[in-house]
Amino acid sequence: MSIHLPEEVINSILLKLPVISLLKLRCVCKKWLKLFSDPNFIEMHHKHTIERNIWSLMLLVETSEFSTQKNRLYSVEFRTPSPSSSSLTTYYEDVGIDLPRCSIPNYEWVGVMESCDGLIYLRYEAGHVCLFNPFTREFKEIQLPVLVADDYDFSIYGFGYDSKINDFKIVDISVTCEERGEALGPNSWTSIEKVLPVHDDDMDGEGVFVNGALHWLTTSCILAFDIEDETFQELPQRVFGTERGICVLGGCLCISSRKDNVSFEVWVMNEYGIGESWSKFFAISSPTFEKWTYFKPIHSFENGLILLRVGDSLVSYYPKHRTARTLEFQGIPAWANLTTLFGNLVSLNSGTYMRSQEQTEDGAEYINGIPF
Question: Which residues does 28 contact at the CB level (< 8 Å), separation at least 6?
Fold first, then answer.
């Protein structure tokens, strides 16, 4: 006796599955293949993924100089710790993804790897950038304008989602104070001459995206660029110290700074744009910090556990008990960069997909780059 479930029940179950499972289920029937490409389903599934806090840490590994592929991605998944737990359980694997080489001859390195809404933003040498969905393996190569690529002394840049046009934008700001952004729909650069309200030569190039805007830390304020309206704003910052950095934890802007040789502090802006809402999130001290200049919070868990990058190491820190543990991933080579990622079925509408060497040699058939 066969059992037929109502369509709404089936869809509700499918919405709760991880992206990688949905990609495999595309092969079940044409109806599901069409469903998983529907923008409404993709948006609802991504919201479920974020609400259930299902995310991965993507590690960028530089392979051997003798390898035909210069970079490779590894995926590390974290099980959300229980409220009483002060440790992390990790599951990691070689996801078998070589980064897109695009049309760059003999490229040497990926200088930047950031993420937004399931897409990874890769900034190569020689004025090339690339958007990449590591789950569907679709990528889109973008050439920076000549001015940005070849004629600048200093630039800041970022990648974010414009909810007004329901699309992504890349922003590159050069020392000539011209903003350049590309929305993936129109596939064209728009140039708008604007005077930067403030800028420092030592500003970090990579902007962090939250609340619909990209943010960079300056000496006197946080410089924000609204993705939708394409306008600048100066946000107050009350955090001082050396070796400062900006990040996002729990959907809030945060600033980290070195307090002394062996201590770092992290402050959080609890209400966006309100200077009086700054408060100390946590502080951490260790004798090993004296030799490390790179300190960046990566992710905060609901039970208070914090994932940190300290130098070349990943550290889990529990402020309540002031306990820290260095995380090790056996079998994964030394990594050069990392980003957090919520899986997404979103398409770049490029029609170009990555296939690993193993896949192309075994003669498998594909649906959008996924073997079945």
Answer: none
